[in-house]
Design a protein that fits this description.
The structure is a single chain. Helix 1 links the parallel strand 1 and strand 2. The longest helix has 15 residues. The chain is built from 12 helices and 8 strands. It is an alpha/beta fold. An 8-stranded parallel beta barrel has the order 1-2-3-4-5-6-7-8. Helix 11 crosses helix 12.
Length: 300
């Protein structure tokens, strides 16, 4: 049985979902009336407390699941003084603290996966392949999704081996839609590496703003994009293709800068025939075909 779920990155930036004056503490509960999954991105900037995750679980219905973004120290995003300070800390302790923090979500059976999004300078090298193996081992049995930002992983000479590596090591593929803006962006690769789950993240297609990470307003610019109906219809077809490879498809809209993510998510729901008769709870679609066997290839 297959299912498709659609959600957004975070729950604080989507004003169109909430009645004016809704307090920040009440927004997650309101969010859960519209979407069955949410990406927690605050965990990227700091390892959240176990108590905070427990609170989010307690205050939301069991229909809401969490895609949790791995802490930036675990994915090598820190540079300069921050990286030097992180190097002094024990990597094992950092991973242990992160795993402990998300235990309430796992215990409630509401963790979709942990997302490891690597930075644009994380290229396809033997050292980085080894690092990915070590990372997966550190996460144990926790389901982990992998997203690249360096084009080398999907260049013709490495693409098949990259996907085979992900299949063999148990990484869930995070399929991206993002601006094609040079080496620091990846193409859309419609290939599932896990028969149970595939993640799709839609970042928008703002080519001019994608590589402006040094600009003071880059957070407002990078994900400033509204998908048009033609683009969303194309993605509806892509989702159907991925459904033939993976039982569960989780789609996250990350084009938050202009408040477009929620509207685009709702439109894609309509295109896919996702609905909820009572207007609340999870949106999903199910069908029956069995996924094909995934061929295991030799890696690197």
């Amino acid at each position: 049985m297959m299912a498709v779920q659609i959600g957004l990155t975070g729950w604080g930036d989507h004003d169109s979902l909430y009645i004016p004056g809704t307090k920040a503490k009440d927004r997650l509960g309101q969010y859960a009336k519209y979407f069955p999954v949410v990406e927690v991105d605050s965990s990227f900037y700091a390892i959240q407390s176990r108590e905070r995750f427990a609170k989010w679980v307690a205050e939301t219905p069991s229909s809401l699941h969490f895609m949790i973004k791995a802490y930036q120290g675990m994915t090598g995003h820190q540079r300069g003084e921050a990286a030097a300070a992180a190097a002094l800390n024990d990597t094992g302790q950092m991973f242990a603290a992160f795993r402990e923090s998300i235990e309430p979500v796992m215990e409630a059976g509401r963790l979709t996966a942990v997302l490891f999004q690597y930075p644009p300078w994380f290229d396809c090298t033997q050292d980085n392949v080894r690092l990915l193996r070590e990372t997966k081992l550190r996460m144990g049995s926790i389901r982990c999704a992998l997203e690249f930002r360096h084009q080398s992983w999907f260049m013709p000479e490495f693409r098949a081996r990259t996907l085979a590596f992900m299949e063999r090591e148990g990484w869930i593929h995070s399929v991206c839609d993002e601006p094609q803006a040079g080496i620091g962006s990846v193409p859309t690769v419609l290939h599932a590496t896990d028969q149970e789950l595939t993640l799709v993240r839609l970042h928008g297609r703002n080519v001019s703003g994608w590589n402006q990470s040094g600009a003071p307003n880059w957070r407002e610019v990078r994900y400033l994009y509204r998908y048009n109906s033609t683009e969303l219809r194309e993605w509806a077809e892509h989702i159907k293709e991925l459904q033939q490879q993976s039982k569960h498809i989780c789609i996250i809209f990350n084009n938050n800068s202009g408040g477009d993510a929620a509207d685009n998510a709702k439109e894609l729901m309509d295109l896919l025939g996702l609905n909820c008769p009572d207007g609340e709870g999870p949106y999903f679609v199910r069908n029956e075909p069995e996924p094909p066997a995934v061929e295991q290839l030799e890696l690197f």
